[in-house]
Amino acid sequence: MADAPASPQPFTVTFWGVRGTVATPGPQTVRYGGNTACIEVNCGTERLIFDLGTGARRLGKALAVGRCEAHLFLTHTHLDHIVGFPFFKPLYDPQNRFQLWAGHLHSQHLDLHAVLSTLMKQPLFPIPLGLMHSKPSFQNFRAGEVLTPAPEVVVRTALLNHPGGSTGYRVEFDGRTFALVTDVEHQPGTLDPTVLELIQDADVVVYDCTYTDACFPDYVGWGHSTWQQGVRLADQAGVGQLVAFHHDPDSDDTKLDAISRDLEAARPGSLVAAEGLVLTL
């Protein structure tokens, strides 16, 4: 009698911050959330966290009970993606272990530890990085490399078109794939081959949908994309589910509701990311 197939290992994606540029708390952003980028990905027993915007504070509070180990991957180090780093409570607990990864600084001859140390230094911040008693390690890599943070987890990376550079990530685990492509500017009329390769046949793709095609010409050079471009890329690459992310600070709940309806009509099953949303691959 043949053995029953093994059950798939848990593979989940949880959104703790979905906003771009600047946090937007208030009554007009309650349903989708006003915190900046932070996504938790659990691959079996391995925890990967992508970006440490203001959403990282709430995630840190949720992880503050018991011992915690995680890999912290940064797409880049613009403020909206790292401002939650000093407020991520588990970093101050000596029993915890963290590795921080960044791939966009290599071409600028910069070092991740030095960048985050500057953030946590007078006159910008009162508590130095050295008081993070977990003693996190810092890994600088070149965007485009393939990383293996854990034996069964493969993370493919790519350099994205964004001022100062940004890193896109593709996480492969237990036969399923999640991709994060944020802070990327597209060229109208073309599909970026780097992005297409990164998201090819992925089960879930989270994409920078800061703008719409209608307003995009006003923001050329700002480093972001549109939900319509996300649809075009996802269709070409055979993506399972597309999730709109990195919402414009001026996009309140009403505007995001409208985008959600248009996105669903254009590509059924697509979602607009909201704080608290949990996806199971």
What is shown here, in short?
This protein has 281 residues and is α/β, with parallel strands linked by helices. Helix content is 19%, strand content 27%.
Question: Can you describe this structure?
Answer:
Helix 4 (193-199) packs across helix 5. A seven-stranded mixed β-sheet has the order 6-5-4-3-2-1-14. Strand 7 and strand 8 (153-160) form a beta hairpin. It contains six helices and 14 strands. The protein has helices at 55-63, 79-82, 112-119, 193-199, 227-237, 253-266, and strands spanning 11-17, 38-43, 46-50, 69-74, 97-102, 137-140, 146-150, 153-160, 166-173, 176-181, 204-208, 241-245, 271-272, 278-280. It is globular, with a radius of gyration of 18 Å. The longest helix has 14 residues, at 253-266. The protein is of the alpha/beta class and 281 residues long.
Going across the major beta sheet, what is the strand order?
6-5-4-3-2-1-14
Major sheet details = 7 strands, mixed
Q: N-to-C SSE series?
A: EEEHEHEHEEEEEHEHEHEE
Kindly name the structural category.
alpha/beta
Tally of helical runs: 6
Helical proportion? Answer: 10-25%
Q: For the CA atoms, what is the radius of gyration?
A: 18 Å
How many strands in all? 14
State which percent range the strand residues make up: 25-35%
In one word, what is the shape? globular
The separation of the N and C termini measures 30 Å
Poorly predicted residue ranges: none
Mean pLDDT: 96
Question: Which helices and strands, and how do they pair?
Answer:
Layout: E1 11-17, E2 38-43, E3 46-50, H1 55-63, E4 69-74, H2 79-82, E5 97-102, H3 112-119, E6 137-140, E7 146-150, E8 153-160, E9 166-173, E10 176-181, H4 193-199, E11 204-208, H5 227-237, E12 241-245, H6 253-266, E13 271-272, E14 278-280
Parallel strand pairs: 3-4, 4-5, 5-6, 10-11, 11-12, 12-13
Antiparallel strand pairs: 1-2, 1-14, 2-3, 7-8, 8-9, 9-10
